[in-house]
């Protein structure tokens, strides 16, 4: 291609340069001969040599200066592709949103390269579509479009002008017919330049340019420029598409989270309803337990009292045969009374009415009375109970009825869960507390169950086969009683068949000054016992 403008600019440049140099030499001659009149041939010669040297040194900068001036005049609308490439690279590096990236790129190409139209179409379902949202965006081209078919096939740059020449230089035939169709499409859409953007052999997008504003045709400079730009665009598209797919993934994830949260909320509401219902049932059960126990307590106490009196001979001599029957009946009545007490205590705990009624308490005396109450049971099983007491055990300021129930349940358990052997009970003072232990040679406890036995309704695995009588509430109440007194209750056992040792401690606290004195305590206690019987 003949660059007339370039030849003209260079000619003017050299003309100006030669004129300038000639003028300098002409002026030097004139000046040395006519104005300062340098004498002698050698004098003028030496001035000429000096001037020549200066001209040689200054020639190159002078040439560059003149070249810039002529270029500015002749190439006013010339594009600095290097700086355009830099600017566009910055846009590509900065933008991650696919739509914004493509719209910005398209506008930058059009304005900076001084084009009538520019667009970047991205691949969508084998066709190509513009993501730009403005009016200048091109219509989508589907996979059956001849241009798209050609691009898929060749994956090469098309400059319409050259393509036109190639097509008409070809002999008639299928190939030419195909190219003719592509050409028609290019002309129909006003496309002058079409470059496929390929990444690792995969067609990603098409850079489509319309006419230049200058009317010039696309040349090597544009081809170089776009060959540099296309890989950058390919990578940027990949990055933006990845970002887009992450966005879609996030949306899907958010949707799933929302649905799961809603489901959870629904389930929570259902659970709350079920919980409220269960609470109602539990309250009803506790109320029933409380009413039933209260109703049963008085007749059972009377039964127990009369049976005891009969056994004591208060109603006349009792035949040995009758005595055995009466003793069995007393035993059953006592067990029933204990059960009622347990139920009453549980219902008190659950309704928050569980309170301590503290008086000065002699723990050793409590143990004695428990042993007396349970001796029949122990004897019938052939179990011996020994009690090693600390004679100097101080009195406890505690709820004596409830502490007695704790001792009663522990010793009752020891008898119940010891098929044969013995039970050793001890009381002693240790670290400011009264310590009670009961060691039996019974069935023992699995170590992993030792702590859970103090929970409500919990019985040892398979215990129902050993002993059917039991609700799993005795230790639960005992734990509550001891805790309320600031003490601790626990069990030690080496395992099944190894016996068990139950411990509880209650700290020895001083009786507050405003509490009733010992005598009054004893009186009050006696009154309560009389009432019960
Ligand atoms: N001395 C013991 N030896 C072996 N197991 C025991 C002993 N004491 C308690 N257990 C186990 O602990 C469980 C809970 O005892 P807890 O006194 O709370 O209930 P229970 O004796 O079964 O019934 P109740 O409510 O009538 O007292 C018992 O069922 C039993 O499995
Ligand atoms: Mg028990």
Automatic annotation (TrEMBL):
GO terms for cellular component: plasma membrane. It holds the Pfam family HATPase_c. GO terms for molecular function: ATP binding; histidine phosphotransfer kinase activity; phosphorelay sensor kinase activity. Its EC number is 2.7.13.3. It is found in: Cell membrane. Signal peptide: none annotated. The chain crosses the membrane at residues 12-36. It catalyses: ATP + protein L-histidine = ADP + protein N-phospho-L-histidine. It is an enzyme of class 2 (transferase). Residues 291-510 form the Histidine kinase domain. Keywords: ATP-binding, Cell membrane, Coiled coil, Kinase, Membrane, Nucleotide-binding, Phosphoprotein, Transferase, Transmembrane, Transmembrane helix, Two-component regulatory system. Gene3D superfamilies: 1.10.287.130, 3.30.450.40, Histidine kinase-like ATPase, C-terminal domain. Residues 250-284 form a coiled coil. PANTHER family: OSMOSENSING HISTIDINE PROTEIN KINASE SLN1, TWO-COMPONENT HISTIDINE PROTEIN KINASE. This is histidine kinase. It comes from Candidatus Komeilibacteria bacterium RIFCSPLOWO2_01_FULL_53_11. The lineage of its organism: Bacteria, Candidatus Komeiliibacteriota.
């Amino acid at each position: 291609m003949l660059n007339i403008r370039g030849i003209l600019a260079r000619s003017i440049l050299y003309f100006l340069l030669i004129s300038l140099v000639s003028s300098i030499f002409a002026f030097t001659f004139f000046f040395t001969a006519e104005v300062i009149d340098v004498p002698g041939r050698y004098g003028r010669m030496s001035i000429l040599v000096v001037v020549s040297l200066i001209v040689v040194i200054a020639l190159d900068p002078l040439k560059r200066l003149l070249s810039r001036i002529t270029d500015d005049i002749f190439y006013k609308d010339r594009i600095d592709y290097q700086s355009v490439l830099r600017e566009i690279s910055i846009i590509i590096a900065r933008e991650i949103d696919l739509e914004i990236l493509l719209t910005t790129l398209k506008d930058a190409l059009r304005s900076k390269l001084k084009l009538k139209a520019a667009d970047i179409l991205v691949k969508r379902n084998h066709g190509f579509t513009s993501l730009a949202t403005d009016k200048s965006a091109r219509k989508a081209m589907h996979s059956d479009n001849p241009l798209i078919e050609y691009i898929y096939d060749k994956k090469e740059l098309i400059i319409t002008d050259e393509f036109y020449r190639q097509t008409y230089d070809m002999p008639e035939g299928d190939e030419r017919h195909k190219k003719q169709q592509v050409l028609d499409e290019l002309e129909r859409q006003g496309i002058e330049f079409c470059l496929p953007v390929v990444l690792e052999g995969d067609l990603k997008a098409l850079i489509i340019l319309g006419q230049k504003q200058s009317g010039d045709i696309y040349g090597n400079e544009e081809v170089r420029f776009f060959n540099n730009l296309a890989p950058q665009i390919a990578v940027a598209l990949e990055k933006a598409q990845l970002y887009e797919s992450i966005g879609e993934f996030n949306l899907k994830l958010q949707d799933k989270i929302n649905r799961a949260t809603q489901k959870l909320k629904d389930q929570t509401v259902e659970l709350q309803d079920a919980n409220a219902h269960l609470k109602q049932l539990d309250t009803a059960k506790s109320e029933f337990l409380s009413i039933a126990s209260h109703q049963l307590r008085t007749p059972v106490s009377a039964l127990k009292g009369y049976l005891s009196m009969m056994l004591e001979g208060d109603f006349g001599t009792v035949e040995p045969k009758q005595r055995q029957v009466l003793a069995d009946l007393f035993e059953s009545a006592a067990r029933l009374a204990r059960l009622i007490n347990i139920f009453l205590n549980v219902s008190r705990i659950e309704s928050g009415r569980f309170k301590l009624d503290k008086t000065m308490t002699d723990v050793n005396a409590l143990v004695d009375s428990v042993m007396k109450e349970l001796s029949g049971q122990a004897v019938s099983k052939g179990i011996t109970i020994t009690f090693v007491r600390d004679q100097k055990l101080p009195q406890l300021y505690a709820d004596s009825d409830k502490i007695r129930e704790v001792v009663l349940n522990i010793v009752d358990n020891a008898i119940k869960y010891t098929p044969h052997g013995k039970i050793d009970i001890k009381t002693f003072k240790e670290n400011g507390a009264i310590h009670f232990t009961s060691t039996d040679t019974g069935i023992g406890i699995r170590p992993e169950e030792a702590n859970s036995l103090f929970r409500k309704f919990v019985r040892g695995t398979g215990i129902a086969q050993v002993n059917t009588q039991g609700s799993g509430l005795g230790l639960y109440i005992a734990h509550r009683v001891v805790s309320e007194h600031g003490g601790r209750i626990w069990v030690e056992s080496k395992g099944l068949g190894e016996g068990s040792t139950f411990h509880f401690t209650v700290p020895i606290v001083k009786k507050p000054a405003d509490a009733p004195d010992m005598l009054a305590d004893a009186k009050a206690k006696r009154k309560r016992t009389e009432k019960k019987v």
